[in-house]
C-alpha cells in the first residue's frame, strides 16, 4: 500500500516537472515576470495529489475549497505582476491550475488521463509561436467556411433518413449527403493544413484521404490546381498518393470478408501499389525541390464549394441507380459491367458485395477479376475528373501516372493465372 502511494506521488512529480521544465525555459527566453517556474509546478502537482488524498478522507468539499484557494492565490499573483508590466499573459497561471488538477487525477487512479493532459499542456505551451502565426492567418472567410462545414456535417447529415428510397431502393439520402460531406471535408482539411503547414501538408491529406475516398481527394485538388498553381507539384503528389493507397485499402477490405479472394488479389494489387509508390516518390522529389525554391508565401483561397459537392453527390446517386439496374437485368453475366459502373464512385460497395458473393454463389476467379476491374474503373474515372477539372500541367503529370497504372492493371487482368 505504501509503495502504491509513493508511486502516485512519483508520477505526480514527473508530470509537474514535465510542464515546469517547458515553462522554465520559456520564462528564460522571453524574460517573463511570472513567478511560476519548475519548482512551483512540481509543488502544484504534489499539492493536487495531496489534496485529493485528504479529500478521500474528509470529503470532496475539501478538494473544491483547496482548488478555490489555489485559484485565488494565482489570481492575486497575476494582479500584482500585471501592475508591474502591461505585457503579462495568463497562460502560465492557467497551466498551473491544470497541473493542480492533474495531480488530483493521479491520486484518483486516472493516470492515463493525467499523463495525456500533461503532455497536451506541454505541447501547446511549446507551440506558442506556431499557434500565434497560424491564428494570424485566419480571416472572416475561414470562419464562415468552418460554420458552413459544421452545418452540413453536424446539422444536416444527422437528420437525413438513413433509408433507401426510389426505384430499386438505391437512393439513400444519408449516404448521398455523406459523400457531399466527404468531398467538402477533404478540400477543407487540405486548406487548413496548407495554411498551417504550407504546401508540405498536402501530401498528408492525399495519404489520409486515400484511406477514405481517393475520388474525393482527386476532385478537390484538381479544382484547386487552377487557383494555386504554385503548389501544383504538391497537388499532383496528393492525388497520386490517394490513388495508390486505394489499392491496399481495397485489398484489406477483401481480407476482412473473404481471405481466399485476398490471396488471389495480392500479386496484382501489390504490383499496382508499387507502380503508384514509384510515381509518388518522383512527385515528392519534384514538389520538395520547387517548394525550396519559392521565396514567398503561397496564396490560397478557401476551397469550400457546396454546389460542386452537391453535383458530385447527384452523380454518385445516378451511378448507383444505373449499376443496380444493370445488375438486375443482366444477372451474373453482367457482373463485369456492374463492376465498371460501380467502381466509378462507390468502389467499396462493389468490392465488399463481390467478396461476399464469392463465398457461396460466385466463382472466386470471376470475383477477383471483377474487383480488379472495379479498381481500374475507379482509376480511369479519376483520370477523367483530372482532365475536366484540372489544369493542363496537372493533367500531364497525373494522367501519366494513372495511365501507367491503368495499362499495368489491364495487362495483369488479361494474363491468365495472375489474378
Kindly describe this structure.
The chain has 419 residues and is mostly helical. The chain has 2 domains: 2-133, no CATH class; 137-414, no CATH class. Helix content is 82%, strand content 0%. Helix 1 packs antiparallel against helix 4, helix 8 crosses helix 13 (306-330) and helix 11 packs antiparallel against helix 12 (259-293). The longest helix has 35 residues, at 259-293. The chain is elongated and about 80 Å long. It starts with a helix and ends in a 5-residue tail after the last helix.
Overall radius of gyration: 28 Å
- Terminal-residue CA separation: 62 Å
| Proportion of strand residues | under 5%
Report mean pLDDT, rounded to a whole number: 80
Listing every helix as H and every strand as E from the N terminus to the C terminus, the arrangement reads: HHHHHHHHHHHHHHHHH
Number of discrete helical segments: 17
**Would you count the extended β strands for me?**
0
Amino acid at each position: 500500500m505504501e509503495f502504491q502511494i509513493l508511486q502516485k506521488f512519483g508520477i505526480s512529480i514527473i508530470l509537474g516537472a514535465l510542464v515546469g521544465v517547458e515553462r522554465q525555459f520559456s520564462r528564460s527566453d522571453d524574460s517573463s515576470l511570472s513567478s511560476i517556474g519548475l519548482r512551483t509546478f512540481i509543488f502544484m502537482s504534489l499539492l493536487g495529489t495531496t489534496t485529493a488524498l485528504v479529500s478521500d478522507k474528509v470529503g470532496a468539499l475539501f478538494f473544491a475549497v483547496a482548488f478555490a484557494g489555489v485559484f485565488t492565490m494565482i489570481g492575486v499573483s497575476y494582479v500584482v505582476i500585471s501592475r508591474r508590466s502591461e505585457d503579462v499573459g495568463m497562460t502560465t497561471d492557467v497551466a498551473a491550475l491544470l497541473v493542480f488538477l492533474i495531480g488530483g487525477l493521479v491520486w484518483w487512479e486516472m493516470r492515463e488521463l493525467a499523463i495525456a493532459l500533461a503532455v497536451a499542456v506541454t505541447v501547446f505551451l511549446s507551440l506558442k509561436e506556431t499557434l500565434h502565426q497560424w491564428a494570424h492567418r485566419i480571416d472572416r472567410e475561414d470562419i464562415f467556411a468552418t460554420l458552413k462545414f459544421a452545418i452540413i456535417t453536424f446539422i444536416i447529415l444527422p437528420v437525413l433518413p438513413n433509408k433507401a428510397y426510389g426505384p430499386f431502393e438505391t437512393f439513400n439520402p444519408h449516404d448521398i449527403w455523406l459523400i457531399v460531406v466527404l468531398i467538402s471535408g477533404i478540400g477543407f482539411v487540405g486548406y487548413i493544413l496548407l495554411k498551417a503547414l504550407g504546401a508540405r501538408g498536402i501530401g498528408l491529406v492525399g495519404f489520409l484521404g486515400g484511406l477514405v475516398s481517393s475520388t474525393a481527394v482527386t476532385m478537390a485538388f484538381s479544382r484547386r490546381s487552377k487557383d494555386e498553381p504554385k503548389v501544383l507539384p504538391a497537388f499532383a503528389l496528393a492525388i497520386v498518393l490517394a490513388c495508390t493507397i486505394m489499392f491496399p485499402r481495397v485489398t484489406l477490405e477483401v481480407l476482412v470478408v473473404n481471405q481466399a479472394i485476398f490471396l488471389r488479389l495480392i500479386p496484382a494489387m501489390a504490383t499496382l501499389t508499387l507502380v503508384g509508390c514509384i510515381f509518388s516518390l518522383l512527385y515528392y522529389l519534384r514538389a520538395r525541390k520547387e517548394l525550396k525554391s519559392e521565396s514567398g508565401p503561397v496564396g490560397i483561397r478557401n476551397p469550400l464549394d457546396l454546389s460542386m459537392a452537391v453535383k458530385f453527390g447527384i452523380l454518385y446517386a445516378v451511378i448507383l441507380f444505373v449499376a443496380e439496374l444493370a445488375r438486375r437485368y443482366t444477372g451474373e453475366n453482367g457482373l463485369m459491367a456492374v463492376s465498371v459502373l460501380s467502381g466509378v464512385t462507390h468502389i467499396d460497395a462493389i468490392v465488399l458485395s463481390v467478396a461476399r458473393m464469392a463465398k457461396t454463389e460466385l466463382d472466386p476467379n470471376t470475383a477477383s477479376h471483377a474487383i480488379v476491374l472495379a479498381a481500374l474503373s475507379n482509376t480511369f474515372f479519376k483520370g477523367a475528373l483530372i482532365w475536366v477539372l484540372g489544369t493542363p500541367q496537372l493533367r500531364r503529370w497525373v494522367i501519366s501516372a494513372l495511365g501507367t497504372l491503368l495499362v499495368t492493371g489491364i495487362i495483369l487482368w488479361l494474363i491468365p493465372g495472375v489474378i
